Amino acid sequence: MIQPFTPEPIRFVAEDGTPVQPLPERFTPALLRELHALMLRAREFDRKLITLLRQGRTTFYAQSSGMEATQVGLARSIRVGHDWVWPYYRDHTLGLAMGVPMAELLSQCLGTNSDPSRGRQMPHHFAAQAQNFVSISSSIASQVPPAAGNAMAQKYLGVDEITVCTFGDGATSEGDWHAGLNMAGAAKAPAMFVCENNQWAISTSIREQTASETIHIKAKAYGMPGYYVDGNDIVAVMEVCAQVAGQIRAGEGPALVECLTYRVGSHSNADADAEKHYRTREEVEEWLGRDPITRVEKLLEKLGHPVSAEERADLIAQTHREVDEQVLKAEATGQPDWRIIFEDVYADLPGHLRDQEAFLRAEQTAQAGQGGRA
Amino acid sequence: MTATQERHTDAAATRTINLIQAVTETIAEEMERDSRVVLFGEDVGARGGVFMATAGLQERFGPRRVFDTPLSEASIVGAAVGMAVRGLRPIAEIQFADYMGPGFDQIISQAAKIRYRSGGQFTAPLVIRTPSGGGVKGGHHHSQSPESYYTHTPGLKVVMPSTPYDAKGLLRSAVRGEDPVIFFEPKRLYRASKGEVPAHDYVVKFGEAAVRREGTDLSLIGYGGVMPDLEKAADALAAEGVSVEVIDLRSLVPWDKDRVLASVEKTGRAVLVSEAPRISNFMGEVAYVIQEQVFDSLLAPVGQVAGFDTPYPYVQDKVYLPGANRIVAACVRALNY
Ligand SMILES: Cc1ncc(C[n+]2csc(CCOP(=O)(O)OP(=O)(O)O)c2C)c(N)n1
């Protein structure tokens, strides 16, 4: 059984791919290859989305390069479509690994008619009902109290689902974060809080963020166990999260898991020059050396099941093809028209919005008549 | 004297800058002038702010006076209140007006009320600067215009410049004043709004609207990010022979009732423009006062152009915003009434 509150991050695989403790049996070469493929796919998705940004086809993107083990490991330790997830805006890798169709994700990023969220949110803020993947809110930590409530409902309903709530290290400073953990702790709700500690909140380092040595230690204050995990070791993330999920499902109450990782890219496209402003190239290089994908490749090599160069290249090419195809398909569905402004504000359109809709319809019709718009 | 008039008298010693430069310069000048002024918020330090409004200030004034905070608006606003009570002059940046939510309680319960509830024994002279408004493809969490939450709270002063001249003058007033000020910066004008500023130290007092152009047929009244659209609408109407008076409120609490009423008395028609949702929009108050106090002068009902009562959408954000066409249409309705 994995112990909470370890002084060092729990890990199974060292940076050079050597197991530092026996791998749990289920981590067969086949599973490790599958996880590797998922991580590589997410990384290439990042690359392609940066290209789309440069081409002006989308306007915002938050990379998760470097954090793949945390998100894929988490995705593969819960019951997808059964458990509920309250994610944050850097979680597309989590979504992809949970089986949210790439087409949906891209449609959201492009704001096309094929976006299930109707183009209302800025890019990279998707929602996926089939996966119980609740709509991402930009407002940091605002998902934490609702996640506690979701878990309380699960307890009330007597279902064996759990709630997963993710956030960055910065989020742990917000009052909502503390309110949510405290509530879940007091209610003994089945919630797993997962901190994707990539050590920077835009330009604010974890050292400026909190005087607390670690994030997981804060769990003590809320009466729940806190686990400290090497977030770049997919075996560790998956093993810890799966065990913790099991405990929570068994009725032991909430837990906090801190995955120590690093975002190797910029915060978002609005911050494309991180190294110029606030962090050093050396730090980035150091973390590139702990890359989660390379680590699994080295492990597989040591186990005698290396991923060949061709396999790797094929996987990459396949992802690129898939993104290209899905982008074209999504774009072909066009942009949602002005009506989306009024739909989904309420269950029914109240009178004042009916008036405003009629006003806009008249305006748009008149402008279309003149062959142009404002 | 209006801003426009003042600018002309200083023509010799002016420079042309944009709105965000005006903000940066003014903070620097005020920090230079008064060592009690400190600046903090998320990413304002090394990064210089997500819009670069505070670029270079940490280098210049050191990390004691310009610093990054933990990611918590409640902490930022609450700490600003505490510092102000203890004698500093904090300027706090909230990264986007949309993210004042977590700090809302500190703003309305602490900043706005400490003078009143203590009988004036304690006060919180602080400035909360925050980019607001749409037109930047930001979706609802980076585009909202939440000024009415704050104009509805007694004890706060609420201002929004639309020109570099006003940004400098209003920000100086804010920093030097004795009350908590919510200083909204229309982010789509940060670089788009350019204008002359005098080299000398001047302030723009709160509660003094600027007459951007004089006219006799209709008063077009707005503030912040929509002002360029008011100007465009006035140009379009001028081409049709309509003489429009364009007024920029500049500050909402307090607002310049006298100038607005005098203008409407002269023109007989008013169209009020803002991009915030319409229900409980601050302009509703302006409309009410106009009909209450100069009803007899009105030749048409007071027109209002506002955002729709929906969250701000990502796609169709240009349609959501009241552009010049929609403003012209509202003016034409008033003129044809
Ligand atoms: C309430 C709120 N305040 C500020 C912001 C602006 N903002 C967006 S991302 C970010 C940093 C978040 O850092 P962290 O929680 O560590 O997540 P990471 O981006 O590092 O994954 C900030 C300050 C916001 N979105 N919401």
Automatic annotation (TrEMBL), chain A:
Protein task: The branched-chain alpha-keto dehydrogenase complex catalyzes the overall conversion of alpha-keto acids to acyl-CoA and CO(2). It contains multiple copies of three enzymatic components: branched-chain alpha-keto acid decarboxylase (E1), lipoamide acyltransferase (E2) and lipoamide dehydrogenase (E3).
So which cofactors does this thing need?
thiamine diphosphate
Enzyme Commission designation: 1.2.4.4
Please name the Gene3D superfamilies in this protein's record. Answer: 3.40.50.970
Q: What enzyme class is recorded for this protein?
A: oxidoreductase
Q: Which reaction does it catalyse?
A: N(6)-[(R)-lipoyl]-L-lysyl-[protein] + 3-methyl-2-oxobutanoate + H(+) = N(6)-[(R)-S(8)-2-methylpropanoyldihydrolipoyl]-L-lysyl-[protein] + CO2
Q: Return the SUPFAM superfamilies for the record.
A: Thiamin diphosphate-binding fold (THDP-binding) (SSF52518)
The entry's family comment says: Belongs to the BCKDHA family.
- A Pfam family per the record: E1_dh
Q: Which InterPro entries match?
A: Alpha-ketoacid_DH_E1_comp, DH_E1, THDP-binding
Keywords, in A-Z order: Oxidoreductase, Thiamine pyrophosphate
Sequence ranges assigned to domain Dehydrogenase E1 component in this UniProt record: 38-337
**Oxidoreductase as UniProt keyword:** yes
Q: What is this protein called?
A: 2-oxoisovalerate dehydrogenase subunit alpha
TrEMBL record, chain B:
InterPro entries with a match to the protein in the record: THDP-binding, Transketo_C/PFOR_II, Transketolase-like_Pyr-bd, Transketolase_C
Transketolase-like pyrimidine-binding domain location, by residue? 17-192
Co-factor(s): thiamine diphosphate
Q: Would the keyword Oxidoreductase be found if you checked this record's keyword annotation?
A: yes
Keyword terms: Oxidoreductase, Thiamine pyrophosphate
PANTHER family per the record? PYRUVATE DEHYDROGENASE E1 COMPONENT BETA SUBUNIT, PYRUVATE DEHYDROGENASE E1 COMPONENT SUBUNIT BETA
Gene3D superfamilies, per the entry: 3.40.50.920, 3.40.50.970
User: What protein does this entry describe?
Assistant: Alpha-ketoacid dehydrogenase subunit beta
Where is the chain membrane-spanning? Answer: none
A Pfam family this protein belongs to?
Answer: Transketolase_C
**KW Acetylation (keyword) present:** no
